[in-house]
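Write out the 3D structure for:
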Amino acid sequence: MSGQLKIIPALTDNYIYELAGQRGSLLIDPGEQIPAPEKLLAILLTHHHSDHTAAAASYNVPIIGPDKPPEEFTIGDFLVKTIGTPGHTRDHKCYYFPEEKLLFSGDTLFAAGCGRLFECDAATLYNSLQKLKKLPDETRICCGHNYLKKNLEFALSLEPENPAIQKRLQNLTPEEPPTLKLEKETNPFLRAKNAEEFATIRKKRDQL
């Protein structure tokens, strides 16, 4: 792994990410102004909501996404693969860094949860999550918000006998980005068997 990841809490419950390599750094979803890293190369945006984009233009560097980013590109030390994940918004993109084993999932996939349906239907978001489930299990999920405690409490209400959910909730601490393997074990939206079940779970979560 050539990059060093920095997780920066922002606004109420957002995350901004800085990924630094030898040839420069990237910022992902700067929803508010933070000090620019040395040798900032570009901004990556997962979608158009202001809590992910508000400070992007202030850095005077190229902005990549979410409208029409390249499907695959190299910037600085990093190979980046773009994954179209409509559902939360129509234009949502996730950025997968295979060499770093990182996925910047924005508001598509959260730790133990997923994004709300603002511009698409449940089947669309379900299909987007199926794309992400195909990534390697060791991929770390860098999501756009910290809703972890509420998400795990909800997950436990659906699967009260699931030991992986129990353990994750009992050991709740500020955590590094979880692996996709852990998400598959504890995230009810990734565990849904089909789009209809996913829609039912999403509706239940929206009512909390």
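The mean pLDDT is 96.
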